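Let us work through a complete example step by step.
Step 1: write down the sequence.
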Amino acid sequence: MSELWRESAVALAAKVRAREVTALEVSEAHIQRTLEWNDRLGAFLHFEPEDVRRQARRIDHLIGSGADPGVLAGVPVGIKDNICTKGVRTTCASRILENFVPPYDAHVIERLREAGAVLFGKTNLDEFAMGSSTENSAFRPVRNPYDLARTPGGSSGGSAAAVAAGLVPLALGSDTGGSIRQPAALCGIVGAKPTYGRVSRFGLVAFASSLDQIGPLARSVEDAALLLETIAGHDARDATSSVRALVPLETATPKSLRGLKIGIPIEYFGKGLADEVRAAVGAAQSTLQNLDASVEQVSLPLTEYGIPVYYVVAPSEASSNLARYDGVRYGMRAEAQELKAMYRATRGRGFGREVKRRILVGTFSLSSGYYDAYYGRAQKVRGAMLRELDEVFEQVDVLLTPATPSVAFRLGEKTEDPLAMYLNDVFTVTANLAGIPAVSLPCGRSSGGLPIGLQLMGKRFGEEELFQVARAYEAASKQTHVWPPEPEGTQEPAA
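Step 2: predict the structure and record it as tokens.
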């Protein structure tokens, strides 16, 4: 089998455009890699090799006719299955949308097509992106390629596992409370949540509309920057889409970070942080100091309220957004004699346990007599958290924190304890509540060989500075992607 699946997205696009390899050869290498891995990982829910080949042949035809297909020419990209793709099932890993085929493409899919990318398939996720382990998929869980008994994180676990194992060089995820950064950290890759409004949400199936953002997963900072540049930009169909242009994220790695101030929030290094994670993030701090960055401790006292605020705001918005799945307009419909019975049966059979839990929490928080006590108060604390961050960013340029409190945990370990599961997002929810950009990238390995990730958070629309620090750290630390152990045998593709 061709080793093209080991190549970076930047390298693959350059080789295809220079006619050193064909887009079909690139796709074929990744198809074969997926046939080897996907049955074990469960990364893809929808993967049709012939459709992938058809797209690749189209790119080769364009190049043969002298046209430039775009900056992602022939590069396979995995698409999280809560992003609409015209003519291709978009299930959100839920029974209620099991047979839903969108009649339109999401904005980010339009951008990928224009850039010459090959849409490789739809990746698995926690149902409606509600989860931290990709165990809540209605179809099958996703496994971590470094230890198949462990979770890849969630909710973008399928995208993260696919990129880490070389099934695709790039993938799209969505991040509502850490759903890109947490699985990126647990799978040893790079994941970025852009500033809220930086990437259009048109065509993203809504979970919590004031928090959701689409972003890239990749095996290097350079590849993540390329994908983010491709999908970012204003879209009039999304009322929250910003007109502020993304400054090109230059590929050159700075030799020094002199003059840059990095803050270390003391609240992120307290009880509950695994010793190996603490040590790896501490080593990353030293690396950045050796690049002449100024490092200082800062305090974000409202950090302790991040999880409770998030788990009021997000379920409340989810309760409202998921009301549309009623068995009438689209999606699954259970037959019943009366309308209310049909509603109950449809939603009872169509939604999984975690989605039902969050709908109930959100509905209660929004209910008469409780709105001010729960949702209203949570929004006030959210505003205070944003102001606190603004004050800290007057002192420093970037914040450095752990991405997760521990390495990947075992499948089934936390499914019966929702609070323990929710605490996996303790370091990531703040960026969503504040709408600021954040990047997760590898910073070491545990004694058992499992990936450890750090998180960088920046000012609103500060992606350029954030990626500058990420590139510099990646180059200086030599924390490049480590391939997982190879599987034995070949499997048929998942449907």
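Step 3: interpret the result. The chain has a mean pLDDT of 95.
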